[in-house]
Structures are given as structure tokens and as C-alpha cells.
Write a structure and sequence with these properties.
416 residues, single chain, Growth Hormone, Chain: A, mainly alpha
Length: 416
């Protein structure tokens, strides 16, 4: 069998563009969603639950999309999911009641539960030694989405809070067209026969391996900690640097909300830019020098430091410090995520990649459900409490990551 490298060179840019457009749409909505929901009377707890509904659908359906991509192919799964998310973004902008916002986020979350299938495309076309760099491309797409999406979302939100949702839907349509034209099928036809030969419950047996369990738990705890920060960052910044005085007029409240959106957008942009630099340009060289296991542990510890840094700068009221803490946190996450995904993919045979990576993304989605679910309540109890709880969780993840390394697997297609 020929080397997969030419296929990787052809496919990876297309996957990158597909995920980038997907994440740009997601990023556009981030800065305006809390304040858009407030227009429908949502409390901080309800606002964070709105974020949880999106991730709940990913928790439920990421394994399904991944397993389905193992059966019918990566291309049809990605096309179907992009189309669904496009409709979800459009409905979000057209919503006239709070329940419609929740329904639209559920639909968009269902559609965007395709990351496991996209990761399977990378696993199909890269050798294990290059896989972390390939997975880093998805992280870089996330980063660019966090840089450009929130920036333009904040700008468009000044015109109309619903406008970013319409633009996100338009990007989804462009994404669907480009993926239909350019995205090839990467699943090897031989996978079908080998998958039929797998014993019943093969994926379940794989999920019982101690190293796999630890990687899944690291993914869950780190994502939960990050989600706690992500979901309350706008409210945290608003409460310190753009508080709403009592008896403010509707116009004053609207101006303060927009100012808070700009402040929170700037911090999220710093997070995204850092992730682009680390995952887009550094992760491959760092993996070759230190290995995924070492980067997994270092990145997890760095996320903890970043979360505690946000608590510190919020306590003293120094807004520029939010950028420093955010860069530290983002760098840690940018090292942790592709390292964990690469290690997880190396535990699976080619015909199980979609299923196992879908489970991994489902664990990440579980963290994005739990984090928003409790973030609002914790925030109402004590402003920095969500960040402190996140730091405790990531410290636990560091302990779980101790000793985790790459497995030795039988030859797969990527290594042929």
C-alpha cells in the first residue's frame, strides 16, 4: 500500500477549512448569546444552561456520528451534520421567545457533533507519529474561530444582537457547498470488511482499557474546567469592569452589555490566537521533542495556573491581567487537547477510529454540559467560584495523566 502522506496533504487543508468555517459560525454567537438571552428575561443560571443545551446534544450524538462515519463514510456524515447546524444558527437568529433559543441551540449542537468524524479523517490519513500535528489543525481551527468569530460577533452584535446568528448560518451554507465539492471520502473500503469481523462489543472492550479510561477522564475534567471559565467569562468581566448600576435605564443597560461583550470578546480573541499559534505551528515540533504524554501533563498543569490567574486578576481588578491569564490557560489547553486526542486515536484500529474518537469528543461534550450547568449557580454564590472549581478539576486531571503514554498497536492503514 502506498504512503498516506500525499492523501494527508490533499485532505488536511480541506478538513481544516471545513472545521474553520464551522467554528467561525460557533464563535460568532459566543459574545452575543448571554446578552441576547437577557433580552428574553434569562437569568445567569438560565444563560449558562443555554450553553449546556448545545453541548448536551454533542454529548449524546458525537459517538453516533463517529460510529456512523465508520459504517457509511466520513464524507456523508460531515455533509449531513453541517447542513443541520446551518439550520440551527438560522433559527437562533429568528427566535422570538426564550424556548426557541434553546431549541435552536439543541439543533446546532446536534449538527456540530461531527468533530469525531473530522478527527477520524485525520486518523485515516496520518501516521501515528504525525497524528498530534494533524489533530492540532483542528485545534488551530478552533483557535481561529475563537479569534475571528467573537471579534466579528461583537462588531455585528453592536448593529443587531441577532445579526451574528444570520452570518453564522450563511457561513454554514458556504461550508456545506465547499465540503460537497472538495471533501473526499477517506475511509478505506477494507475497513468495512475488517469492521464486520470485529467481535460484538469490541468498542466496549476497548473502552475498558485503563489507559483509555484515564485519557477519557482527563478529557472530561479538563474540558469541564475550561467550560466553567468559558461560560461565565462574559458575566465575570461584566460584573467587575462593566457593572450595571441600580435603576439604570434600558439604554444604559444595553450600552453596558455591549461594552461587556467587547471586553469579553477581546479576552476570547487572546485565547483563540494563542491556540492558533500553539496548535497550528508548535505542537508538531513539541511532540517530536517531548512526546504526547509529557505535553498532556504540562498542558494540564498550565490550564490550572491560568484559571487561578484569572481569579487573582479579578480580585485586584486589573483587566490587562485577564489577557495574561487567558494566554497561559489557552496555551495549556492547546497542548493538552491534541495530545490527548492523538494518544486516544493510537489505542484504536483504523476501523474503530470514528467510534473511539466520537466517545472522546462525547466526554469533552459532557464537560461542556456539566460546566455550563453548574457555572451560573456557582457564579451567583461567589463570583470567582467557577474558576476555582475549574482549577481543582484540572489539578485532578494532572494526577490522572501521570504515566499515560502511547500504546503499541498492530499495524493499521496509517502505518502501512
Amino acid at each position: 500500500m502506498s504512503s498516506p502522506q500525499p492523501t494527508a496533504k490533499k485532505v488536511l487543508p480541506i478538513v481544516f477549512l471545513t472545521i474553520l468555517l464551522d467554528l467561525l459560525g460557533f464563535g460568532l454567537v459566543i459574545p452575543i448569546a448571554p446578552f441576547y438571552a437577557q433580552h428574553f428575561g434569562a437569568s445567569p443560571t438560565v444563560i449558562t444552561l443555554l450553553g449546556a443545551t448545545y453541548s448536551l446534544m454533542q454529548l449524546i450524538f458525537m459517538p453516533m456520528w463517529g460510529r456512523l462515519s465508520d459504517r457509511i463514510g466520513r464524507r456523508p456524515v460531515i455533509l449531513m451534520s453541517v447542513a443541520v447546524s446551518c439550520v440551527g444558527y438560522l433559527w437562533f437568529g429568528l427566535a422570538t421567545q426564550l424556548w426557541m433559543l434553546f431549541a435552536a441551540r439543541l439543533l446546532a449542537g446536534f449538527g456540530n457533533a461531527n468533530i469525531g468524524a473530522a478527527q477520524a479523517v485525520i486518523a485515516d490519513t496520518t501516521a501515528p507519529s504525525e497524528r498530534a500535528r494533524g489533530m492540532g489543525m483542528i485545534g488551530a481551527a478552533f483557535g481561529i474561530g475563537f479569534v475571528l468569530g467573537p471579534v466579528f460577533g461583537g462588531i455585528l452584535g453592536k448593529i443587531d444582537l441577532a445579526l451574528p446568528s444570520y452570518v453564522a448560518a450563511g457561513l454554514g451554507l458556504v461550508n456545506l457547498i465547499l465540503a460537497f465539492i472538495r471533501l473526499p471520502e477517506t475511509r478505506d473500503p477494507e475497513h468495512i470488511e475488517r469492521r464486520k469481523a470485529l467481535p460484538p462489543g469490541a468498542l466496549g472492550m476497548l473502552l475498558k482499557k485503563p489507559s483509555v479510561v484515564r485519557l477519557l477522564l482527563v478529557t472530561f475534567t479538563v474540558t469541564t474546567g475550561f467550560a466553567l471559565m468559558e461560560q461565565i467569562s462574559g458575566l465575570y468581566i461584566q460584573s467587575i469592569w462593566a457593572p450595571v448600576p441600580p435603576n439604570s435605564t434600558a439604554e444604559q443597560i444595553d450600552l453596558l452589555h455591549k461594552h461587556a461583550a467587547v471586553l469579553s470578546t477581546s479576552v476570547l480573541a487572546a485565547v483563540g490566537l494563542t491556540m492558533v499559534i500553539v496548535q497550528g505551528g508548535l505542537i508538531g515540533r513539541l511532540v517530536k521533542r517531548f512526546g504526547e504524554g509529557a505535553l498532556l501533563r504540562f498542558g494540564t498543569a498550565t490550564v490550572t495556573i491560568g484559571l487561578l490567574g484569572m481569579v487573582a486578576v479579578g480580585t485586584i481588578g486589573w483587566y490587562p491581567g485577564m489577557f495574561i491569564a487567558s494566554v497561559v490557560l489557552a496555551a495549556g489547553s492547546a497542548l493538552n487537547t491534541p495530545s490527548a486526542t492523538s494518544l486516544l486515536s493510537q489505542h484504536a484500529q483504523a476501523e474503530q477510529q470514528g467510534g473511539l474518537l466520537g466517545v472522546g469528543q462525547s466526554m469533552a461534550a459532557a464537560g461542556r454540559v456539566l460546566g455550563p450547568f453548574v457555572a451560573g449557580g456557582l457564579f451567583e454564590l461567589n463570583r470567582p467560584l467557577p474558576l476555582m472549581v475549574g482549577a481543582v478539576l484540572t489539578a485532578i486531571a494532572f494526577v490522572l495523566a501521570l504515566g499515560v503514554g502511547a500504546p503499541v498497536l498492530p499495524t493499521t492503514r496509517a502505518a502501512d
